[in-house]
Specification:
Keywords: ATP-binding, Kinase, Membrane, Nucleotide-binding, Serine/threonine-protein kinase, Transferase, Transmembrane, Transmembrane helix. InterPro entries: Kinase-like_dom_sf, Prot_kinase_dom, Protein_kinase_ATP_BS, Ser/Thr_kinase_AS. By secondary structure, the chain is of the alpha+beta class. The protein is built from 13 helices and 9 strands. Strands 1-2-3-4-6-5 form a 6-stranded antiparallel sheet. A 3-stranded antiparallel sheet has the order 7-8-9. It is globular, with a radius of gyration of 20 Å.
Length: 332
């Protein structure tokens, strides 16, 4: 088995820190609820209803006197603004990220600071996340393709501009039903480009821990090795694996144990979980999930193209079938 060579003591230190960081995030999750901003002003924006809350901050609806389109404003927890270097980097990176313009990337219109709070303003998407959809529905290979293709296109666009997302996961993939030429159409958006790079930097400089979600992190991200587009490809492959099978490649009770799985444990072959799972699609998934980034698809578009070619080889009838197995029994 080929794995990334590691220094065991360094790895243990990193993984212990990862666990501490995850626990800290859980403790902070409710803090932003204590101070509601609804009805106040942040810069030129009026903060509206709270629509989301988490460990990094809160998301509200927002309005601007010169705009009629729906807006959302994400306000980071106050401690982020207390670090002057982080604050400067937040604004600097925000200026770059706000220039991203792609139909499958939620546009970020403005980054700013007001009264000790860092925030950014983006397009409001009135739809569900892939995370929510996975709780209530099962995906065929055809349905998974309808998510994979636009996300891969968004990633290629960002990667061509030297931007790595670093946190591809179902919660950061949003689907909005739109009407186009009189017909309903599912528009897929990739979210949170605005936080990935700058939060990674501040975590590494203050705790030595990579930002990301352990279930979806590439081996090199766990190890704090340099990231490449292939790192996002790995995370996207975990998402596709989950869509097709209704379960993740790896499970563990603790974040550090889960991180070890990404580094040294091969993912279960889909056909070992569901005997009828198409072998061509399995080969594509397992290549995208290889431990060594140089052996994976180097572009998200290459992954999507290989998936499409495998699907054509399998045929429409089998691609319209479900291969759901669900989470392992001990996890349920």
């Amino acid at each position: 088995m080929n794995t990334i060579a590691v220094n065991s003591s360094y790895l243990l230190m990193c993984l212990n820190m990862l666990l501490c960081y995850a626990l800290l995030g859980e403790q902070l999750e409710g803090l932003s609820m204590e101070k509601k901003l609804t009805g106040t002003q942040l810069g030129a924006f009026t903060v509206g209803k709270l629509i989301g809350d988490g460990g990094m901050g809160s998301v509200y609806l927002a309005t601007h006197p010169e705009r009629s389109d729906p807006l959302a404003i994400k306000v980071l927890l106050p401690q982020y603004a207390e670090d002057s270097e982080f604050r400067a980097r937040f604004i600097r990176e925000g200026q770059v990220l706000s220039e991203l313009s792609h139909p499958n990337i939620i546009p970020v219109y403005f980054f700013g600071e007001d009264r000790g709070l860092l925030y950014f303003v983006m397009r409001y998407v009135s739809g569900k996340s892939l995370y929510e959809l996975l709780l209530s529905r099962r995906f065929t290979p055809i349905a998974a393709w309808q998510i994979l293709k636009p996300v891969a296109e968004a990633l290629d666009y960002a990667h061509e501009r030297s931007i790595i997302h670093r946190d591809i996961k179902p919660a950061n993939i949003l689907i909005e039903v739109q009407r186009v030429d009189g017909k309903l159409h599912n528009q897929v958006f990739l979210a949170d480009f605005g936080l990935s790079k700058v939060l990674t930097w501040t975590a590494l400089t203050t705790t030595g821990v990579s930002v990301g979600t352990p279930q979806y992190m590439s081996p090199e991200q766990v190890m704090d090795y340099p990231l490449t587009p292939a790192s996002d490809v790995y995370s996207l492959a975990v998402v596709v694996y989950e869509m097709l099978l209704g379960r993740l490649p790896f499970y563990a009770k603790k974040p550090d144990q889960l991180a070890f799985r990404h580094i040294d444990t091969p993912p279960p072959a889909p056909s070992a979980l569901h005997p009828e799972f198409p072998k061509p699609l399995e080969a594509v998934l397992l290549r995208a999930l290889l431990k060594e980034p140089e052996r994976r698809y180097q572009r998200a578009g290459d992954f999507a193209q290989a998936y499409a070619e495998a699907a054509r080889q399998v045929g429409r009838e089998r691609c319209a079938m479900q291969y759901y197995v669900g989470e392992p029994r001990h996890i349920r």
